[in-house]
Structure formats: structure tokens, C-alpha cells
From TrEMBL:
One of its GO terms (biological process) is thiamine transport. GO terms for molecular function: thiamine binding; thiamine pyrophosphate binding. Pfam families: SBP_bac_8 (PF13416). GO terms for cellular component: outer membrane-bounded periplasmic space. The keyword Nuclease does not apply. It comes from the Bacteria. Keywords: Signal. This is Extracellular solute-binding protein.
Length: 325
């Protein structure tokens, strides 16, 4: 994990140097959201601040954290959006204190104070068993309801899961099992599950893509992606295991020393207006006590899993050292 982080620092520096050099004087926002959400943020900022030169750059969560870690207060970025909280914890010393920016009523445990006033909680990325009902029907198989059901040999080569080493989605499924079973039983569970896995995908969206293609019947994937496909006509079903929906968190922050008036105005818009737009239209998992959801058919009253430690970077590095697939 540490070697990977150092490598990402080097790659991130090379990839963004030329772009940033040409954008001196800009307000630069690193976004780790999906491309369509990043594009919508750029569009809204252009409309809201026509006199400001704002550049929203998609930078993956690991690369974003790697650059901030090495550049610290000299980072090219002024604002980061949608960065996984375990990485925000790793670069916390380089983030601006945001005391006074708490403008939304978050559910317990997700407030600004819970984040040491260094970043606002941006979203909850949550998952479930996503079922392609037609593929299961073709194989005359029942819909699995529990993690233990997934170990049944009848599902061999019909399951896809993201790789925890390359995907935050894969990691939160892994972490959920380890929280429930502990290290020894948890690793034994994945030893057994691996026999039924067709592939560990590189990205969190990988299982959904395989479900669309009919190559697997069961995907451990993101709920919002499954709902999007269901609304587009895919024969999918969502199943939450008894332990609840596993999830990770992302956050949004300002880089320390970048809190001038111009950057503050942009950050205020992102943290207030675009935040609500994003929750209503793109990423609706609950983070606020009162939260609107405009996405058709999105599950209500979702049972969430015990995800203690999901934001702890040392725990993540420890667990990834134990992952062997």
C-alpha cells in the first residue's frame, strides 16, 4: 500500500503539471466524483461565477490524496470534492479548518465536528447484492439473501466483486465482513467466497457492467448504479444482506492557506447549493436528517451496516496487506 501511494504521487505530479501550469490564476477544484457529476459541477460553477476562472479537474481519490500529501499547502488544488474520507484523514494536516461551515443538519456521526472541522461529509457510497434475475432464472437458481448464501457451489463463476485494492466499493464490502466476523473468520470467508467469484473487477462499476452483459448473475456493487440500470429497463433486483448495506464516505475540503475570499465563495456554493443538487439528483444515500431524493424507485429506509473504522487509513492499509486475491 505504501509503495503504491508513493507511485501515485509520482504519476499524479506528471499528469497534472502541464495542465496546472497553463491555469495559473485559476481556482482549481479536484473532483473525485464520476465524470458526469464533475461536468455538472463545472457547468454550474461557470454559470454561478462567470467572472471567475474555475477549473474542475477529475482526479482519482488516490492520486488526489497523493498530490496533496507531497505538495501540502503548495498544492495546485484549492478545493477537493468527493475525496474518500480515509484519504482525507491521511492529508488532514494540509486542510483548512472549516469551523463555521456547518450549514446542514447531518445524521449522527457525520457532522463537521466529527471530522475535526477539516472536511464536510459529502456523500455515502453504499452497496448491495445486485441480481440479474434473468441470468438466475436461466440457471434455475434462487435469489441469495445472505453472505453465507453466496458460498453455495451452485453460484460458482456467477458472482463478481470489485477488488478492494483498486476499488473503494470492493473495500467497503471487505471491511463490512471483517467488522462482522473479525480477521480470522473474515479471511476464511473470503477464502471460501473466492471459489465462486468469476472475477474481482478493477473498478466499483465492474460488477454492474458484467451484470448488464449477462456474464454474472450476482454483483457486489453500488446501489445507485443498480437503480440507474433498473430505471433504464435492466432486469435487476437489489438485495440487502442481514448485516445491512455496506458503505464508505467521501468529503469535501479546502486546502490550508487557500481560504481567500474568491475561493471561499466557490467553496460556499459547492458545500451548500451543489451539495443539495448532487444528493437530490446523483448520490442520494442518506447523510442528512432531512434529505430529498428525486431518483425514481430509490430504496427508502435503507438498513446500513456497521462500518466502524471505514475512514481509518492505517486500518485500511493493514487490511489490504491481508488481501491476497
Amino acid at each position: 500500500m505504501k509503495k503504491l501511494f508513493v507511485f501515485l504521487i509520482m504519476v499524479a505530479a506528471i499528469l497534472t503539471y502541464d495542465v496546472v501550469q497553463s491555469e495559473q490564476g485559476s481556482i482549481i477544484v479536484y473532483s473525485s466524483m464520476e465524470q458526469y457529476r464533475t461536468e455538472e459541477l463545472q457547468k454550474q460553477l461557470n454559470e454561478q461565477f462567470p467572472d471567475k476562472n474555475i477549473l474542475v479537474m477529475y482526479v482519482s481519490t488516490a492520486k488526489s490524496a497523493a498530490k496533496i500529501k507531497v505538495e501540502q499547502e503548495n498544492s495546485d488544488a484549492d478545493i477537493v470534492v468527493g475525496l474518500e474520507t480515509s484519504y482525507l484523514e491521511k492529508v488532514k494536516d494540509s486542510l483548512q479548518d472549516l469551523s463555521g461551515y456547518q450549514t446542514h443538519e447531518y445524521v449522527d456521526g457525520l457532522t463537521l465536528a466529527d471530522n475535526d472541522n477539516k472536511y464536510i461529509t459529502w456523500e455515502r457510497q453504499a452497496g448491495a447484492f445486485i441480481i440479474n434475475k434473468e441470468v438466475l432464472k436461466k440457471h434455475h437458481l434462487p435469489v441469495p439473501q445472505t453472505y453465507e448464501d453466496l458460498l453455495d457451489p451452485q453460484y460458482r463463476n456467477l458472482i463478481a466483486m470489485p477488488d478492494p485494492k483498486t476499488s473503494g466499493t470492493g473495500y467497503f464490502f471487505y471491511k463490512s465482513i471483517m467488522n462482522t466476523k473479525g480477521d480470522q473468520e473474515g479471511l476464511a470467508y473470503f477464502d471460501a467466497l473466492e471459489k465462486n467469484i468469476k472475477t474481482f473487477t478493477e473498478s466499483g462499476s465492474g460488477p454492474v457492467k458484467l451484470l448488464i452483459q449477462g456474464e454474472v448473475a450476482i454483483g457486489l456493487g453500488l446501489t445507485f448504479q443498480a437503480i440507474d440500470e433498473i430505471n433504464s429497463g435492466s432486469p435487476f433486483e437489489i438485495v440487502y444482506p442481514p448485516q445491512g448495506s455496506p458503505y464508505s464516505l467521501t468529503g469535501t475540503a479546502m486546502i490550508k492557506g487557500k481560504d481567500n475570499k474568491e475561493v471561499q465563495e466557490v467553496f460556499d456554493y459547492i458545500a451548500n447549493d451543489f451539495f443539495l443538487y448532487d444528493k437530490e439528483n446523483f448520490s442520494p444515500e442518506q447523510v442528512l436528517k432531512k434529505q430529498k431524493n428525486k431518483i425514481k424507485g430509490y430504496p427508502q429506509n435503507i438498513p446500513y451496516a456497521d462500518m466502524h473504522g471505514i475512514s481509518e487509513i492505517k486500518e485500511k492499509e493493514r487490511l489490504l496487506e491481508l488481501w491476497k486475491y
